[in-house]
């Protein structure tokens, strides 16, 4: 079993250039990038980005001649490979493999061996093998068993046999049964393992292929002091020791130990229980120690590749063995056993030297030739390989490993060729095109006047050394590239997303499935009035960069054209700017069964494509809209909460407000001493605190229950407020909700306010007076002709003086607050997107300063003059969607003009 370095892990490595370092870094916004630099200097200025755009976090692998990265887009992972540090190319699996996960098993001998979990697999993986560049993959074995280690890492039940090139063991799941298979040619052919003819006692074993075979556990230990379930060594070719069982499937019961000394062709049972096995003297000595939780004092030695075993004592007192370790070097004859005599004792180290067993070193006449074969077939990976092995009856020390004695190439046969990419092997052994593959399609790199290799449907197994024979017949033939029109054009972003932030670089990648990239002109229109053109497609391999200065949805188009035709692709890119604040604007109080408008006010006002999610009261299902304003009604009295969530890209912000609903209510407009404006920061928290203070003062001054009134400070300057008189129950529990009852309370409140008794201390030395927002009415005057002229003159004088005061006060207000009526950047800088009450003449300018007001960014919601004889102007801001009415200052059953802040 291999714990493979998957494309979900980070790996930092060095290439064949020893001073080049490969790194995966994170940008300030959390994106991962692959960069390279020299070890001596890795500053920002000298870094290189071999892969254009971002990659998935923890996905970089640098292994031998290959670099792998992963990029997820559209919910699917895409894998890219660079061979010998050339440009990255997408790894090509069969079209409908649709991988969920990939692990690189091996990159030996200029080829990639990978385990891929496809869309319909859960606990199994398929094995794929690539061409030399690691781009085109073909299936080697389906449904290989997988598991997870205690740390959660994926473990593939695959084992590469050391010392024999191209030899693997794998546990395959077939109809819910796990069986062990072996290959000698890197996955081209797989076979079940032949069980031993006899058991440990010499009894005959009845096990007939394919119904019964030998099955092995392939877990490799990561602990250097303990052995796993299987072991082999480069310096002991052909010797494999493993634990397993004989039967119809792999089992965790009745586990025995087995050994093969001829590379898996035949097997012998050596123990009926699991043992740890150590290789000494290049496999000339095998040491076995029982796996047990009990203390032991014996071990077993074999000098003939496991055919016979001798029992030796290594300690006089039984030892709880924690691990066994051989001295460095395969030719060593020294091993160390460490453990403890009891659970309370200290560690004990027992060093064992077997040199005294041998009296001499081996000579040439002590060896015999051994030919590697697969069930009698001597040609493996295109060559006949002969090794030398010590004769079983000779008891001498081998020394340094010399490798294979001889290797002779074989004549090529069909067995030396696997199916090429896009082809599948059928039951008759032929490689035929898959239904999704068109053999006549040409690579986009094939330019007129050049040549390409026309596949025969076969490709020679990488590292296969065969010559002649059918080699010419199965090898791809060079042919001239014909002219082809562009086909299969794709336009994507480098990070695979369809969103970007305003002012940030966007990298577009143009991919062409078929056509002559050297002779094709490409034009990309970014949809914002700018475009670029390139003389050939190869100029765009590193991506096409563009910065969008405005937010919106942009239609990006790419067109490729040559003399034979054209193709185009379209991408819709959403450009946003970060959403920083959301404010829900709605009335404090409303009337039952009457329409109310709620508006989400945003900062900044233009952020791109938005989704609004509205929650009302205790409803579990929200209302989802694309507009920032909605209209609704309440059918029951009481306090109700409304929440709006605004989704912009990966950001979701929300605001919640409470609204009171009654059959009827009254309201009074309040104003304050002018000095309050100097301390008004115009933020919601300040308004809530001042409202609470005023409510407390009113309750203390009038004796009215706090449940009968609601005070709301309104946004903007000069500071003003709305006092709401709500239905109530008297001491006897009688419901008081008629207009007369509310008017009675309203008159009491107005009386106290006009008497200047409602006041509070804002801070030491600063006292604020609260009064109604209109002048007390003068006594009624008879204006019939019978009245004297002096009386008429007096009345005209009063009116003239009042008008003069109004004009002076009005001019003073405008001069003091020249910019409170627009949603300009100065107002935005104060984190507010709403305006103060503005005169009608100023609202026209507001509309100019806030062209997006139709989406609810600017709100005009109060009359300009709080002293206009107790009457209010009709204000209807189409942008905010707020509702205003013509009403007396003391109003009944009217939607208030104020917004809930």
TrEMBL record:
Protein name in the entry: PKD domain-containing protein
Gene3D superfamilies (alphabetical): 2.10.70.80, 2.120.10.10, 3.30.60.270, Immunoglobulins
GO BP terms: post-Golgi vesicle-mediated transport
Family of the protein in this entry: Belongs to the VPS10-related sortilin family. SORCS subfamily.
PANTHER family: SORTILIN RELATED, VPS10 DOMAIN-CONTAINING RECEPTOR SORCS1
InterPro entries: Ig-like_fold, PKD/Chitinase_dom, PKD_dom, PKD_dom_sf, Sortilin_C, Sortilin_N, VPS10, VPS10-sortilin
GO cellular component: Golgi apparatus; membrane
Keywords: Glycoprotein, Membrane, Repeat, Signal, Transmembrane, Transmembrane helix
Domain PKD: 525-569
Membrane topology label: Single-pass type I membrane protein
Localization, UniProt: Membrane
Residues passing through the membrane, by range: 791-809
Phylogenetic placement of the source organism: Eukaryota, Metazoa, Chordata, Craniata, Vertebrata
């Amino acid at each position: 079993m291999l714990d493979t370095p998957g494309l979900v892990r980070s790996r930092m490595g060095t290439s064949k250039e020893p001073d080049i370092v490969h790194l995966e870094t994170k940008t300030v916004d959390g994106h991962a990038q692959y960069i390279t630099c020299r070890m001596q200097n890795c500053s920002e200025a000298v870094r290189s980005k071999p892969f254009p755009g971002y990659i998935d976090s923890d996905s970089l692998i640098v292994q031998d001649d290959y670099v792998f990265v992963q990029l997820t887009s559209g919910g699917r992972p895409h894998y890219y490979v660079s061979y010998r540090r050339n440009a990255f190319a997408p790894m090509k699996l069969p079209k409908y493999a649709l991988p969920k996960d990939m692990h690189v098993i091996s990159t030996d001998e200029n080829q990639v061996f990978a385990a891929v979990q496809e869309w319909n697999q859960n606990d199994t993986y398929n094995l794929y093998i690539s061409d030399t560049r690691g781009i085109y993959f073909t299936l080697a074995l389906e449904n290989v068993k997988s598991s997870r280690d205690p740390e959660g890492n994926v473990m593939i039940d695959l084992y590469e046999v050391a010392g024999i090139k191209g030899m693997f063991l794998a546990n395959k799941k077939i109809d819910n049964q796990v069986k062990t298979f072996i290959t000698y040619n890197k996955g081209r052919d797989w076979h079940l393992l032949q069980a031993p003819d006899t058991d440990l006692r010499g009894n005959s074993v009845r096990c007939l292929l394919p119904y019964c075979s030998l099955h092995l556990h392939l877990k490799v230990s990561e602990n250097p002091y303990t052995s796993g379930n299987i072991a082999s060594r480069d310096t002991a070719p052909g010797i494999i020791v493993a634990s397993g069982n004989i039967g119809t499937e792999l089992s965790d019961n009745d586990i025995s130990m087995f050994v093969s000394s001829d590379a898996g062709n035949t097997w012998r049972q050596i123990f009926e229980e699991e043992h740890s096995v150590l290789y000494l003297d290049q496999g000339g000595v095998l040491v076995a120690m029982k796996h047990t939780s009990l203390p032991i004092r014996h071990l077993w030695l074999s000098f003939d590749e496991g055919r016979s075993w001798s029992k030796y004592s290594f300690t006089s007192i039984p030892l709880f063995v924690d691990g066994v370790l051989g001295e460095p070097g395969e030719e060593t004859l020294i091993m160390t056993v460490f453990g403890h005599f009891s659970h309370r004792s200290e560690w004990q180290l027992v060093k064992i030297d077997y040199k005294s067993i041998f009296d001499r070193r081996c000579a040439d006449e002590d060896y015999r030739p051994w030919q590697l074969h697969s069930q009698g077939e001597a040609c493996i990976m295109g060559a006949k390989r002969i090794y030398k092995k010590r004769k079983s009856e000779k008891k001498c020390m081998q020394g340094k490993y010399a490798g294979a004695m001889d290797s002779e190439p074989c004549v090529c046969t069909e067995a030396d060729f696997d199916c090429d990419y896009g082809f599948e092997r059928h039951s008759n052994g032929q490689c035929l095109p898959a239904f999704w593959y068109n053999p006549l399609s040409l690579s986009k790199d094939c330019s007129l006047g050049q040549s390409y290799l026309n596949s025969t449907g076969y490709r020679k197994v990488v590292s296969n050394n065969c010559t002649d024979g059918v080699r010419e017949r199965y090898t791809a033939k060079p042919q001239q590239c014909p002219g082809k029109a562009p086909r299969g054009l794709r336009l994507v972003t480098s990070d695979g997303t369809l969103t970007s932030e305003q002012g940030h670089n966007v990298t577009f990648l143009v991919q062409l499935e078929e056509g002559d990239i050297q002779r094709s002109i490409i034009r990309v229109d970014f949809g914002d009035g700018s475009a670029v053109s390139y003389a050939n497609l190869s100029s765009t391999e590193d991506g096409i960069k563009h910065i969008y200065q405005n937010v919106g949805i942009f239609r990006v188009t790419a067109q490729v054209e040559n003399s034979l035709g054209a193709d185009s692709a379209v991408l819709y890119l959403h450009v946003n700017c970060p959403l920083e604040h959301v404010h829900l604007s709605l009335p404090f109080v409303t009337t039952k069964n009457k329409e109310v408008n709620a508006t989400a006010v945003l900062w900044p006002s233009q952020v791109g494509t938005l989704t609004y999610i509205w929650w009302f009261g205790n409803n579990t299902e929200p209302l989802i809209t694309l507009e920032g304003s909605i209209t609704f009604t309440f059918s029951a009295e009481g306090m109700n909460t409304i929440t709006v969530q605004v989704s912009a890209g990966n950001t979701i912000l929300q605001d919640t407000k409470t609204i009171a609903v009654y059959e009827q209510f009254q309201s009074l407009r309040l104003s304050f001493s002018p000095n309050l404006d100097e301390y008004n920061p115009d933020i919601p928290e300040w308004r809530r605190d001042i409202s609470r203070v005023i409510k407390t003062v009113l309750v203390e001054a009038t004796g009215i229950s706090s449940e009968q009134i609601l005070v709301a400070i309104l946004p903007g300057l000069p500071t003003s407020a709305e006092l709401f008189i709500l239905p109530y129950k008297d001491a006897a529990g009688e419901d008081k909700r008629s207009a007369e009852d509310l008017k009675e309370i309203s008159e009491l409140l107005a009386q106290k306010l006009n008497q200047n008794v409602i006041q509070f201390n804002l801070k030491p030395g600063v006292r604020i007076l609260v009064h109604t927002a209109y002048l007390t009415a003068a006594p009624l005057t008879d204006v019939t002709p019978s009245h004297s002229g002096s009386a008429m003159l007096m009345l005209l004088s009063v009116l003239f003086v009042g008008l003069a005061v109004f004009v002076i006060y009005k001019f003073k207000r405008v001069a003091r607050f020249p910019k409170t009526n627009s949603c300009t950047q100065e107002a935005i800088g104060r984190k507010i997107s709403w305006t103060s009450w503005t005169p009608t003449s100023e609202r026209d300018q507001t509309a100019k300063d806030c062209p997006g007001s139709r989406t609810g960014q600017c709100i005009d919601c109060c009359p300009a003059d709080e002293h206009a004889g107790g009457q209010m102007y009709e204000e209807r801001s189409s942008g905010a969607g707020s509702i205003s009415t013509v009403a007396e200052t003391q109003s009944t059953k009217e939607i208030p003009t104020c917004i809930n802040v």
